[in-house]
């Protein structure tokens, strides 16, 4: 059978080699593009318009995906990437002769070599980028696509930071063209090294289904959908505004503050820390919150950065200048890298595997047109403001970045109107991002996705339950459907610490009905603790189940909810059953109901041959019904540990009684002393005393119940019952005061 997608093993191996390729490429790319090219151009003293043209090459390259589309059908995605990626590094070799040309005072030739090499580099880059979406989309899968891309970015930005540090030290040591030639040489070598790992990446299978699809038809079909039309507009405007910002932030710093080339590299290094932070944040959140809200959030950061430049006062070189410029680069790369990542993942979430190639080409072409026009417009606009209109540098840059801020503001408005595509609403998502509790939940969810054993999964689920968050709730709910009993149980138990919602209530009721003998008893317990009124009927239905564990938990749950109509059903079960669990939980249920009419039934259970621990539970439940549990429990524990110690403690309680005459105290001491010494005298003396001192609990006189069972020789001979009755007499000796 022909495989329609990569196997998990193929995907895992492909990811490994793809990440190695990306790491080497992330050394090569910043050494061969971006600020390095801008700074070389400034060293050659070329005007801002030419700087804009050089910057536009990065975006013009995307137009050549159309050529890549024609080639990929014959070559395949991996071979296309291998051939043209290798070629793009080779065409940068002529740049190495720039110092030689400048020594011969041939600046024009140097500029031509730089422009030709840069454009050749980007043309070949554009062709091989055709392979990018099919390969990366197939390797990422659909379930954790955002996490995969973000993990790649984390590795990438770590390497970029190290590469930036290396460039900074190279230029600090030699800020001339020679320093840049060393940087270009390292970039070429790293790129050629990266190309060696490309053939080890598996050819995508799902995306290959769309290699023969007509691009124009796919594009026209997508344009029929409002969300695609809106996204294409947003994509164009995003890269138009970003490409107006990126290269001219360098020009701004050099023009306004005379920042050195090595200083630019240092600030760019700081900016890459912002990009790294974006990747970390995205790795935790983008698959859980969705791409749309993060796209919005990072665009908002870009807007704030532009506004800082617009409103920051003119400054002289000072201590604050470093912080100011570092903040600009940090926020710029944090925002722009986040916009790129969020936009790309959103795009992949709204297309099918068969559309990955053709609409991927459309994606990059629109990106390229927007970026190229942005760079060209930026260079022309700056030259217009600075040289033709003769506006001061400070005012010119304020006007320039105000225009960018306006574009980003429009962009925010448009992003709001995108379909959510499974994402949280923007407001909710940003609230989650700003919440330390929700960020902790996101971190735990990321760990949960990467667990390898059931024990790890159970531990993280338990911790999630103690981190109440909407995010943790949704993922805990998904674990309820696990085939593993222990995982379902851990997820249900985690619901104890999180807010109770209708959705959780429905899940618990479903669990109660459908999983007897496994986790239904946990659902019953939670329905009781959460006082679920809708849970009453299904809980009643489970009282007669053969799953005694479930029936017992349902008794307690109904008592916690306060469903007094279930008392007769529980009483009937108690009368008939000999099951210790049902007896114990039935007694506890009567205690919670404070149902004094059930005392005779509980005393009857003392009469049968039963385990001592069951009698203990019954008597403690009776103490709870009579409202004396807290008072009686420590005395009873002492009695069980050593009988006479309990008796002595009862006598101490008698001695401490207030408003009780010495004569009555003496009678009580005599009765208590007879628990062990004269067991056959105890029932008669206790009955006489109770006739004079009635026991009234929950507004009902319970004296006759005790009188009846003190006459029952089977029960009256039980030391536990005699001790309990003595405790009741002492406790209620001051009944009028209670």
How does this structure look, described?
- The chain has 738 residues and is mainly alpha-helical.
- The chain folds into two domains: 13-432, MFS general substrate transporter like domains (Growth Hormone, Chain: A, Up-down Bundle), CATH 1.20.1250; 623-738, no CATH class.
- The protein contains 37 helices and two strands.
- The protein has helices at 8-32, 35-43, 48-60, 65-75, 77-90, 98-103, 107-128, 132-140, 145-173, 177-195, 215-223, 226-257, 261-289, 291-311, 319-350, 356-388, 393-416, 426-434, 436-449, 454-465, 470-479, 485-494, 502-514, 520-529, 536-541, 548-561, 567-576, 580-593, 599-607, 612-625, 629-641, 643-655, 662-677, 682-692, 703-710, 713-716, 719-731; strands spanning 696-697, 700-701.
- A two-stranded antiparallel ribbon has the order 1-2.
- Strand 1 and strand 2 form a beta hairpin.
- It is elongated.
- The protein starts with 7 loop residues before the first helix and ends in a 7-residue tail after the last helix.
- The mean pLDDT is 81.
């Amino acid at each position: 059978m022909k495989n329609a997608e990569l196997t998990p093993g193929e995907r895992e191996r492909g990811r490994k080699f793809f990440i190695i390729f990306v790491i080497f490429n992330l050394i090569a790319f910043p050494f061969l593009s971006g600020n390095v090219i801008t700074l070389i151009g400034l060293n050659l003293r070329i005007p801002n318009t030419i700087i804009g043209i050089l910057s536009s090459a990065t975006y013009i390259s995307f137009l050549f995906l159309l050529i890549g589309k024609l080639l990929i059908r014959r070559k395949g995605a991996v071979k296309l990437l291998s051939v043209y990626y290798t070629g793009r590094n080779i065409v940068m070799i002529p740049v190495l002769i720039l110092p030689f040309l400048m020594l011969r005072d041939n600046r024009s030739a140097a500029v031509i070599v730089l422009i030709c090499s840069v454009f050749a580099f980007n043309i070949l880059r554009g062709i091989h980028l055709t392979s990018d979406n099919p390969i990366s989309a197939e390797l990422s899968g659909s379930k954790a696509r955002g996490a995969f891309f973000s993990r790649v970015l984390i590795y990438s930005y770590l390497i970029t930071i190290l590469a930036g540090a290396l460039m900074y030290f190279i230029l600090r040591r030699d800020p001339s063209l020679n320093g840049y030639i060393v940087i270009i040489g390292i970039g070429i070598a790293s790129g050629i090294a990266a190309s060696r790992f490309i053939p080890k990446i598996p050819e995508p299978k799902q995306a290959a289904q769309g290699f023969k699809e007509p691009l124009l038809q796919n594009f026209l079909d997508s344009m029929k959908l409002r969300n695609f039309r809106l996204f294409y507009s947003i994509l164009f405007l995003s890269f138009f505004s970003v490409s107006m910002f990126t290269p001219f932030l360098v020009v701004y710093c050099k023009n306004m503050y005379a920042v050195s080339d090595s200083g630019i590299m240092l600030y760019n290094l700081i900016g890459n820390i912002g990009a790294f932070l974006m990747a970390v944040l995205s790795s935790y959140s983008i698959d859980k919150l969705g791409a749309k809200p993060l796209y919005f959030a990072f665009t908002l950061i870009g807007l704030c950065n532009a506004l800082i430049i617009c409103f920051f006062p003119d400054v002289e070189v000072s201590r604050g200048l470093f912080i100011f410029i570092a903040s600009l680069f940090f926020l710029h790369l944090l925002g722009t890298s986040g916009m790129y990542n969020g936009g790309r993942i959103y795009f992949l979430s709204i297309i099918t595997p068969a559309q990955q190639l053709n609409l991927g080409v459309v994606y990059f072409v629109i990106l390229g047109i927007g970026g190229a026009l942005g760079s060209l417009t930026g260079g022309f606009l700056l030259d217009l403001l600075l040289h033709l209109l003769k506006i001061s540098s400070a005012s010119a840059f304020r006007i320039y970045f105000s225009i960018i801020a306006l574009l980003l503001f429009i962009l925010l408005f448009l992003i709001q109107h995108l379909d959510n595509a499974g994402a949280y609403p923007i407001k909710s998502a940003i609230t989650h991002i700003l919440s330390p509790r929700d960020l902790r939940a996101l971190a735990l969810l990321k760990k949960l996705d990467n667990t390898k054993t059931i024990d790890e999964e159970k531990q993280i689920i338990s911790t999630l339950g103690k981190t109440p968050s909407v995010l943790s709730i949704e993922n805990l709910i998904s674990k309820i459907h696990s085939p593993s009993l222990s995982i379902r149980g851990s997820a249900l138990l985690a619901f104890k610490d999180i807010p109770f919602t209708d959705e959780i209530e429905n899940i618990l009721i479903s669990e109660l009905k459908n999983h007897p003998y496994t986790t239904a008893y946990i659902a019953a317990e939670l329905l009781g603790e959460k006082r679920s009124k809708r849970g009453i009927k299904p809980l009643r239905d489970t009282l007669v189940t053969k799953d005694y564990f479930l029936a017992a938990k349902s008794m307690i749950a109904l008592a916690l909810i306060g469903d007094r109509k279930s008392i007769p059903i529980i009483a009937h079960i108690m009368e008939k059953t000999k099951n210790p669990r049902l007896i114990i939980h039935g007694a506890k249920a009567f205690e919670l109901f404070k149902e004094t009419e059930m005392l005779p039934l509980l005393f009857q259970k003392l009469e049968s041959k039963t385990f001592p621990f069951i009698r203990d539970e019954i008597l403690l439940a009776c103490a709870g019904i009579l409202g004396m549990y807290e008072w009686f429990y420590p005395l009873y524990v002492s009695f069980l540990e050593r009988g006479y110690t309990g008796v002595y403690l009862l006598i101490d309680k008698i001695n401490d009684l207030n408003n009780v005459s010495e004569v009555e105290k003496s009678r009580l001491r005599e009765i208590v002393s007879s628990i062990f010494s004269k067991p056959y005298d105890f029932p008669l003396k206790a009955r006489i005393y109770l006739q004079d001192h009635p026991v009234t609990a929950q507004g009902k006189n319970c004296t006759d119940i005790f009188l009846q069972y003190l006459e029952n020789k089977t029960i009256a001979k039980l030391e536990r019952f005699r001790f309990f009755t003595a405790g009741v007499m002492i406790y209620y000796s001051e009944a009028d005061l209670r």
